[in-house]
Amino acid sequence: MLMSAPDSCCSDCVKQTVQSHGVKGLYRGLSSLLYGSIPKSAVRFGVFEFLSNRAKDESGRLDSTKGLLCGLGAGVLEAVLVVCPMETVKVKFIHDQTSANPKYKGFFHGVGEIVRSEGRGTYQGLTATVLKQGSNQAIRFFVMTSLKNWYKGDDSNKNINPFVTGVFGATAGAASVFGNTPLDVIKTRMQGLEAHKYKNTVDCALKILRNEGLTAFYKGTIPRLGRVCLDVAIVFIIYEEVVKALNVVWKTD
């Protein structure tokens, strides 16, 4: 069976990375990703719980539109409080570690150097990040809320097993990838080592379109699809199971 161009490019990228840096090369930037994931998830789901608990009707049901708005609010806040500074650090750190002469000795040394040299530059691409995270979570929570309401029907207390939650989460993740990959591309460019080339988010988008064409906004869609679907499925399973556990000792809905 012949591989499609995106699949071939993805496989070639993995092969070259392993050849140049070993299997460890596939995990470059992992520390910054881990340090950012915990506060990011805490803000995202904490804000969503806070907003959704106030948006539910008398029967405890959250409709899809309100799910979208609650997700949007959660995404915007996580972008401002956590994602933008952490993504800037992560992108610069990964680029540095894959360069011929890395200058950062480790995560904390890298953070110190980036903050010292960039200052407010850690908020480069804030507009693109807010747009990306806001739309990301709006899409995911809209899809997730819609699927949960469909599954439960008229019984808002119907239990959803982890496997079904995982399938719903993967579906929500796929929808978000196709919905906002262009914003992710712009955000990454705005936070990369060559961010100085762009005056602002709009300028970045126009230069990508003019110099690389429309398809450039969907670069990396296939590998991102696989990663995000698995990621979102796991995260939603953990979230739903944690909420169930908390409901036993502390009513959260």
TrEMBL record:
Alphabetized GO MF terms: antiporter activity; citrate secondary active transmembrane transporter activity
Compartment(s) of residence: Mitochondrion inner membrane
Membrane is among the record's keywords: yes
Name assigned to this protein: Solute carrier family 25 member 1
One GO process term, biological-process aspect: mitochondrial citrate transmembrane transport
Sequence ranges of the Solcar repeats: 1-54, 65-150, 160-245
Chief location: mitochondrion
Physiological role: Mitochondrial electroneutral antiporter that exports citrate from the mitochondria into the cytosol in exchange for malate. Also able to mediate the exchange of citrate for isocitrate, phosphoenolpyruvate, cis-aconitate and to a lesser extent trans-aconitate, maleate and succinate. In the cytoplasm, citrate plays important roles in fatty acid and sterol synthesis, regulation of glycolysis, protein acetylation, and other physiopathological processes.
Species of origin: Nothobranchius furzeri (Turquoise killifish)
UniProt cross-references to InterPro entries, sorted A to Z: MCP_dom_sf, MCP_transmembrane, TXTP-like
Keyword ATP-binding on entry: no
UniProt cross-references to Pfam families, sorted A to Z: Mito_carr
Entry membrane topology: Multi-pass membrane protein
